[in-house]
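Technical annex B. To support the medicinal chemistry partners, we prepared a structural model of the target in complex with calcium ion, based solely on the information shown next.
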Amino acid sequence: MKKIIAGVIMSAVALTMGALVGCSSTPSEEVPDDPAGTKTAVFEAEGCDLSEYSGHGWSNNATGCQTIQGQNTQKIRENQSVLNSISNGYFVGFFGVENTALTFDFTSAEAVEEATLVLRLASEWGTMTVDDSIMQIEVNGEIIEYNPFTVTGKKIDSAATVEYGVPFADFTISTKISLKKGDNTIRLIGQGAPFGDMESMDIGPGVDCIKIKSMTDVTWESLWEDNQLNVKEN
Ligand SMILES: [Ca+2]
């Protein structure tokens, strides 16, 4: 009986909330958003130069374009919500080996003091708190400080059952990124973090893309056209 009453009350609250939203002068789609004129540049991880990039999972090593997963990965094709969440259909996995970096070289039309950096990530290692013990973020040669954040993952029983079971999502790292006019570099650097007490695992999130929001034009030369020729079924 209590449940039914609670249900009725919740419905009433929902109706009231709906009515309030309906009358509101600020529809939800207008708040809170990026300032007018904000330009968002999306750099796909799978378009990076991966020639120096490598990593390893529970049972296999991967180098270069072998680390690209997504539409080519059977386990991910079987999970529509994860597949649909992946920008450009692919991401770079196997992130986490100490001092192994994903490097994004790009050009900014103007110097900018307060660009926003967003990372689009998912975790195959269960729910993961990403901090500088897992990933360091370097902007133009300087490691930046960022607040630890949680990437929700599917619960796994062991390192042998890793799986990207929860869709990729955007995480805002900073709104105070300084860009130079001309060439800039952002590097995501693995730290060799263990999985629990398993020192050999080198865990980290899968990296789909990075987004840079600013008032200027930020561009890069993606290597995706070449990289996609080397994507392997897995
Ligand atoms: Ca991607």
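Notes passed to the chemistry partners:
The domain at 35-230 is CATH 2.60.120.260 (Jelly Rolls).
The longest helix spans residues 2-23.
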